[in-house]
Amino acid sequence: MGWTEDQTLNSTMPGIEAAYRGRMKMLKAIFGSSEEVPAEKKPSPRPITTKLFDALFSRKR
User: Fold this and answer.
1) Does this model's pTM top 0.70?
2) Less Cβ crowding at N or C end of the chain, within 10 Å?
3) HEC per residue, 1-61
4) How many angstroms separate the first and last alpha carbons of the chain?
């Protein structure tokens, strides 16, 4: 939150919680929330075979 150790130790727990919530709102406003990030595509359920493995990882091109 950017507080010094003395500021934190001299604050009440409700004050610390309010400051934390405010900081999180500020960061979400600046950078956006994780809920806005699209889900990654899931890998194909295609089973790995020796032929597929060699095609993917063979140094022969």
Assistant:
1) no
2) C
3) CCCCHHHHHCCCHHHHHHHHHHHHHHHHHHHCCHHHCCCCCCCCCCCCCHHHHHHHHCCCC
4) 52
Gyration radius of the chain's alpha carbons: 24
d(C-alpha 61, C-alpha 29), whole Å = 47
Residue 8 reports pLDDT greater than 60:
yes
> Is the separation of the CB atoms in 20 and 2 below 8 Å?
no
